């Protein structure tokens, strides 16, 4: 460790000297300087100075403000495409005689220099993490700067190699996990907020709770994704009781159901990188080994796009709703609609039916379900098992889905079959109950 | 483990059914079948069946004889280049409007489907190791089948990502190392053979011996490269005493010199993949931490091409040798030339001088030294320190270098500087003694 | 784990049946029942039922209230001495013919059955921890129940074997330490309170802080003792700046001094069990290895008995104080004495001198220093280096020592010599400055 | 490590100076010197010099020849009993007023100083191992020197504390176990010799083989006991096939029976120290967890005392044999008795019957079975399941038991019950088949 640190300090000084910079200028301040450094990094053959330059570029980049970063990212995207002359030559050669060898040469010539730049930046200490953070910046700017799309493609291409499934490691998170990792669990929990160390402890320590996270060696202490699990006697129909304070934990050995009630992705910069769709099954398998009496593995999941879809359908007469349904839904617009038990009962029945319809018919790009959580679990081989109206009565639960939550079921014997049905044919696998609900008339 | 194994067994059966194969046919026997399987693998989206297919392909490949393997490799190289139609379209689009986005699209279109195939094969259990072994086959066939070059390029490209320096781990190898790794040290030792467990123990257990190996998580128990070290009082001038049986080990604390006397690459299939040129320095640093009294880190290295070079120079009057030198060297042709001490003394002096000339003037491709061991150590930042004639009197030592060995010196304070001098300018960094020797007249 | 738990559940049921207890009566309620169980435990030969009985006894004991525990402890102390008949026979046999063999037999006959009871209780799951807690109870009752002294002696005898130095393990405590251990650091900190996780983090995470704890395998996650360390440029003269919030940490590499500013024993039940006097030196050595530039290892320690000693001396005219000193000390009685800088300066000078006298002359049992912190560090081989008046201005600091703190110096080259001087001759090793101070006249 | 070594070197030098020995005299040569050193060790209070002295004594002892060692051991046994004066006073005080406190004081006074000496020797580096080896010496001399019995008693008393069951750790031994431990498995195998690394590998690597060893932290790499396991389809009736070379291993998952075919104690110096009788069950449990399809756990065990017992019974007309049986057994005296199949069949039937009788009726001290292997397994809670005549046809097998071997069955549901039946009532638990055999008439 010290050696590497010393080495880099020495080399960095030297490489700065080589490119004409005074020692004291430890932080390049202008985006333009970073572009020059990137050119220098691409042109060098020496590894030592390369590592030092990579470090300087990433450190310098992180010290820039938002505009400076935009400038650097655009410069990389625009200026570091393939060598145009070389590419033209390769096209000409290939067109003249389209052999496999010339096709391969064309592929090499067409490679954007951005990819080599990113590879070299990756050699800096903690370079991978810096690049994941850099991609967060790219994603946040894509709408305003579509020119960054090429850089995003490069990053996705390389990340897909580096975050190869074979490197991912599952580790149980519990109250004996190192504190520096636990504080990240607090920070990254995206579904049901963890407010402090005491609440964290309530999620980890009772014997009817489990938590697992996936790690990658190059990101060391940074979890990629984690799942929180509650052990119960029955498939739960509401989130409130699961995360309420107090209550006596159930003896783990008495549990029959494992509920995945919160799944959080931790690294926005890795959006779209598949960690392999079998990860959640590792947790199922882990639990089954520890507690052989568990028979049922389900989620209790939000339905994030349901309210938006419903609003859209209500606004059109030619959509998924009958006019009768549209009429009944008017009651939803009263802020206090859940205060009358009779109204709640009627509306919840209707919402469940419409949610079933939503899952089975609302499609996005590539004929995949509109609902992102459904895409995740169906892609993992789960089955949409049950729809629970009135399951999340928090403000955000009512806002995004009028309180509806669902259970996805992971049945080990069916998991690959379901996965293949979804992956190959985009089939939304559901229980017969959900199917019946979707077909039901009012 | 069991879960994954079970899963794969299930999935594999199912995927065979899907592609119309009876269960019992566990091993495809014909190369042509494997090509079909490869097509199937490339066309599927489901991950479960993909992993199963990958496994079947690799297992099937390993069961083939040499001709069958050649057939499969050629089929992959020839048939799985880029999609020609799509590539032609991308060229046309780019030529019409050469934006960065279209250049990027062209790069993607030009990617050989071989690369995607290799990526998917890599997901099979122990897939990486199978692919490293497969590349051994490719390398062995390159001369006879130059069409395999494109496949080799693909493998090198992907291996370079996967064997990213950040994943390499140094571990000390000693007598408390697991036996399954130790047996590989015995097997892979390439410089000075280890005959049995007793000899292995003599290289590992005495307190003046050390051994370090580099590992990669995806190859688990397979070392990539290892170095054997002897601790001594002085820079050694001959190999014999270092590996002789018997003798009392020196107390480690009395040593001043660490001698890297054997460095073996273990995986032929990774030839040309740079593991980063700073690896050997990790060992230096490790030793320095353990034994702060060590002052000098040198190799005792063979000179594998010297005799061949000398023979060539002797055959021409316009080469590197004076006619006087050519005359004196005639004595080398007598099989018993080392039996007369006077002759030995005179010839050894001459051989040392010519070896110095060889290192400084004999160049191969890219203006790099002809000597492969010199390329390795100079690239690592070492300095050619001393030339030792009469250092290796074994049959092979006499055959490859007339008994000459050399010491490369690793000076931590100079290592990056030397590395950069070699990497950027191909400078052969030597001690002044070697320089003087090279300049000396008879 | 599960197996052992299952096994114990089964066996416990069975052993309860054997001794005539209904299954449902899981908790013996009366102290008298526990005495019966103890007799049963001593009389059995079967290990399985013995372990179950041991568990029942310890669980039952922990469920008792304070009076019930007193009753059980007294019963063990009184009733489970040696077998009197057997002892009388052994005395007679020895008196008749005092051979070594008969002396040995006498020793065995004289062993209190309490020791065998404690050994068997130790086999219960977490038995050792339960026994350490039980000794806390014994210690708390010794004054009121001197008959418990014999039980305390037995526990000390056995603990000394079990907490054999060879089993102790030093581990660094930092922000990546498991949370369940960190919460014990918060709980056991006895010198300078840690209020919450944020304060804990300030003591562990900055690069100029270190913490080390000693563990024993049979107490798993229970630290026995821990030290908190601050890295500084100079030997500190006051505690305030060391534990203040905010401030920039010093680069670890710039530090020259390591200050042990808080040392907490965690297990009252192990009072008087020596963990070997070389433990703190392991930390010194650990730090020296990590940071070779450190030259000085000191404590900043409280002087817990100084104010009490001084009050006693002030109350007598024949004690350690001159009448002039007694006069000057009257100013201490004003609650606001530290508000006048002139008075503070004068009094601090006097207090430093008297503290030096206190360390060198105030003795307790066995001619050892009265000050318990001094006994600990001198016994460890430290030297009393410097006296700092006005070093701890907290309410407790003023109450126990009028604000005086001291530095003990750990000089690796002198540590054994100092230790031996103290262990063999009770010499209080001090710097010449402290000696001069002690000799100084007003 | 280095620190401790350095420290000891310094302290050792100093302690030698203190006791008037020149530095250069590193090895005391005479037993008498060691006795003086032992006195010095007992009289010191300083821990540093104590550790150094302990090391000198143990090193010096190991350098002595057999007679020198005898002399030292006898001196310790004779001279370091309790302080006779103090013991006499304690007896007098106790006799005058036999309180618990005085009984406790008498126990302390009666403690042989040998025990304190052994405790202090244990603090030397690797002291515990040295003391285990020293007890081997004591055991080897007990017959000739009964005066050593008191020292043996002291060692057993202290070892029983130190080798407390809670510290024992089970580890699987396989082909990835460190070589320095594997070589000890080769060395300590006591039942069926392992000739070289290749044979070792055959016992560890095939998937139908397992090996487990028990370790203790103070003996580091020294196994205490290990078991070799073969996985089979049926309970085996002969040892030959199990350890024969060649043969295809059975898939672990197809096995139904785990056979403990070799159990070796490694440390003679720990003879008689119980490691707790539930150790073998940990292995059963471990196997059950890994391979849930295993249903049967048996040994294939030798019957070491059977032939001797039979010879004795044949020699008397009033013993366990009928005259008819004695007549039939005459055939055993022919060296080639196993060459006639008819004779073998008849004799094997008789031998099985007599072996059953031997197990059920032949008793040693304390009404325990004469057979030591039976005592071990019955004490562990196993049941004598089956008797196999003609099971071990090796020379030693024929010599010790006329070829008879037996299976002990470990039935997890019965294990504690069996253990208690043996421990409390010395009951020999057998299958009904064995019982019937024992009752059978010819």
UniProtKB/TrEMBL annotation, chains A, B, C, D:
Q: Which Gene Ontology BP terms does the record give?
A: fatty acid biosynthetic process
A GO molecular function annotation here is: malonyl-CoA decarboxylase activity
Q: Where is the Malonyl-CoA decarboxylase N-terminal domain?
A: 81-163
- Where the record annotates domain Malonyl-CoA decarboxylase C-terminal, the positions are 166-411
Question: Which InterPro entries does its entry note?
Answer: Malonyl_CoA_deC, Malonyl_CoA_deC_C, Malonyl_CoA_deC_C_sf, MCD_N, MCD_N_sf
Name-wise, this protein is MCD, Malonyl-CoA decarboxylase MCD
Q: Record the organism.
A: Phreatobacter aquaticus
């Amino acid at each position: 460790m010290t050696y590497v640190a010393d080495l880099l300090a020495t080399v960095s000084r030297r490489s700065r000297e080589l490119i004409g910079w005074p020692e004291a200028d430890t932080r390049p301040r202008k985006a333009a300087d970073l572009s020059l450094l990137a050119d220098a990094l691409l042109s060098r053959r020496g590894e030592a100075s390369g590592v030092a330059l990579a470090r300087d570029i990433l450190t310098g980049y992180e010290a820039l403000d938002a505009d400076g970063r935009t400038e650097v990212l655009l410069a990389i995207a625009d200026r570091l495409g393939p060598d145009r002359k070389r590419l033209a030559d390769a096209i000409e050669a290939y067109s003249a005689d389209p052999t496999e060898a010339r096709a391969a040469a064309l592929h090499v010539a067409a490679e954007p220099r951005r990819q080599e730049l990113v590879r070299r930046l990756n050699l800096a200490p903690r370079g991978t993490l810096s690049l994941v953070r850099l991609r967060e910046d790219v994603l946040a700017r894509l709408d305003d700067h579509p020119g960054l799309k090429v850089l995003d493609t490069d990053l996705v291409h390389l990340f897909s190699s580096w975050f190869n499934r074979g490197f991912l490691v599952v580790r149980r998170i519990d109250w004996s996990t190192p504190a520096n990792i636990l504080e990240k669990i607090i920070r990254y929990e995206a579904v049901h907020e963890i407010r402090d160390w005491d609440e964290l402890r309530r999620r980890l320590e009772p014997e009817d709770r489990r938590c697992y996270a996936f790690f990658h060696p190059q990101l060391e202490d940074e979890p990629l994704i984690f799942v929180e699990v509650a052990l119960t006697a029955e498939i739960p129909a509401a989130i409130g009781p699961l995360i309420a304070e107090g209550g006596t934990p159930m003896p783990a050995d008495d549990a029959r159901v494992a509920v995945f009630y919160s799944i959080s992705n931790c690294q926005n910069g890795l959006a779209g990188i598949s960690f392999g769709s079998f990860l959640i099954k590792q947790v199922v398998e882990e639990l089954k080994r520890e507690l052989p009496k568990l028979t049922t593995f389900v989620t209790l999941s939000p339905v994030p796009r349901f309210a938006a879809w419903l609003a859209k359908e209500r606004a059109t007469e030619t959509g998924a709703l009958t006019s009768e349904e549209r009429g009944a839904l008017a009651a939803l617009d009263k802020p206090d609609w859940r205060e009358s038990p009779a109204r709640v009962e009627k509306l919840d029945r209707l919402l469940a039916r419409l949610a079933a319809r939503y899952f089975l018919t609302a499609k996005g790009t590539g004929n995949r379900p509109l609902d992102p959580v459904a895409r995740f679990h169906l892609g993992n081989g789960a089955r949409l098992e049950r729809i629970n109206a009135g399951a999340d009565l928090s403000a955000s639960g009512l806002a995004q889905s009028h309180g509806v939550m669902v259970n996805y079921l992971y049945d080990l014997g069916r998991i690959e079959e379901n996965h293949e049905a979804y992956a190959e044919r985009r089939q939304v696998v559901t229980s017969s109950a959900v199917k019946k609900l979707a077909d039901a008339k009012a």
